Structure formats: structure tokens, C-alpha cells
Amino acid sequence: MQNQEESLRYSPYFTKKSGACDEAKETNNLKYEGKSTGKSPKKPRRPLKRFGEMSEEDVLKLKLPEHLDYNLDILFVGINPGLMAAYKGHHYAGANNHFWPCLYESGLVPERLTYLDDVRCPSYGIGLTNMVERTTRGSADLSRKEMRDGKDGLIRKVELYKPLIVCFNGKVIYELFSGSKCTVGRQKDPIPGTNTVVYVMPSTSGRTQTYPRASDKVPFFLELKALREEVKQKSGDTSCSDGQQKY
């Protein structure tokens, strides 16, 4: 009989024992809750001001100036200004864009330039423009009409300024311009109605999956430099063949 009472007393189903356990758990829970409620609440993070005091809608209204001149060696063509380029007012201003390092590493210019120096590019025989001038969040926001008008506008610029070479910064841009698929490198057809040679290189954006690093893109800039020398020799113009300033 005594053994039965002992076994019942320490049984997990014994009411008093269970009640004691529950009370202990409740006490521990209260202690834990006291600790958690004693912590100061986390401060909300301040929203990241990507464009300073400007809203994205205001940035979309900005225009990016072109840098053009007559008889340039190379005219680089982008598709249209992105938000960061428009906000900063300079071409290829994104932190991960490899345009400026590649320009120097290839020897197309004799000094290291940054996006702040884009206005100086024509003095090295290099121009900067876009097919479409409207700023967007991405090229997918452009309409077909804008692309058609951009193509016509680019042809008029080439006819007026007569660069030796037009370099499309991105295969997709030239495919939109020409209406057909292409591979990177020199194209067989010039800009319509002109003798301007066409070269297509991978986009200098750091998001390009096939060529993610600047070192992956330098060979295309080197090929473009060699093409510049070839075209200049054929045209009888050997000035500034080492990338020195023209003016």
C-alpha cells in the first residue's frame, strides 16, 4: 500500500506535483517576460536618400547633356540615361560601371578619368551620347516610338558630326538600332547613309553576367583602339593616334 502511494506521489499525473511544475514554469515565464519587456525598442531605420533631397520622380525629369564635336574618332552610344547618371549629370556615373577604368587601361586616353571628366572627352577625340534622351528607371520603360525616333536622331548626329567610329555600349542597343541580331566586334555595315564604322562592345555595366569584371571588358576597348588606328590610317589622319588631347 505504501509503495502504491509513493508511486502515485511521484507520478507525472499526480495533481499536486503537476501543479507545482506549472507554477514553476509560470514563474520562469514571468521572469523571461520581465527581461524582454525591459529592453528598449529598436529605433526605426532612416530611409536611404539615394538622390539627396530629390525624389525619384524629380530625377526622372532631368536631362543628361551630350558631349559631341565634329570629326571625333569614336562616338560612344548608350541606350538612355539611368537614374544615377541623370542625378549626377554625368555619363557612366554608376559606382559599378567599368567604362572609365577600361577607357584608361586600354590606352584610349592617356590619363585616368572619372565620370566628372566626361565633358573633357571630346578633347581626346571621344564623344558621348544616347539613343534616347529621356531618363528612365530601366530601358524596358522606353516605348517603341522612342526607340524609332532615337535611331533617326542618332543617324542625323552621325551625319552632322562625322565621327570615324560609332561604338554601341551594349549588344542590345545595336540590335535595337539595326533591328537584327549581332555579335560583339566590328560590324560589316556602317551607319546608314554614312561611312562611319560601327563597333559593338559588351555593356560596361557591372551587372553584365557574361563579362562581370572590368578586366573582362578591357580586351574590347583594346580592339576598339586598334580599330581606331586602322580607320585613321585609311582616312589619312594620323593625328592623336596615341590618345593625346586634340585641343
Automatic annotation (TrEMBL):
Its EC number is 3.2.2.29. It comes from the Eukaryota. Keywords: Activator, Chromatin regulator, DNA damage, DNA repair, Hydrolase, Isopeptide bond, Nucleus, Transcription, Transcription regulation, Ubl conjugation. One of its GO terms (molecular function) is DNA binding. It is found in: Nucleus. GO terms for biological process: base-excision repair, AP site formation; epigenetic regulation of gene expression. Residues 40-49 have a biased composition (Basic residues). It catalyses: Hydrolyzes mismatched double-stranded DNA and polynucleotides, releasing free thymine. The keyword Hydrolase applies. Gene3D superfamilies: Uracil-DNA glycosylase-like domain. SUPFAM superfamilies: Uracil-DNA glycosylase-like. GO terms for cellular component: nucleoplasm. Residues 25-50 are annotated as: Disordered. Residues 67-213 form the Uracil-DNA glycosylase-like domain. Belongs to the uracil-DNA glycosylase (UDG) superfamily. TDG/mug family. This is G/T mismatch-specific thymine DNA glycosylase. It comes from Pocillopora meandrina.
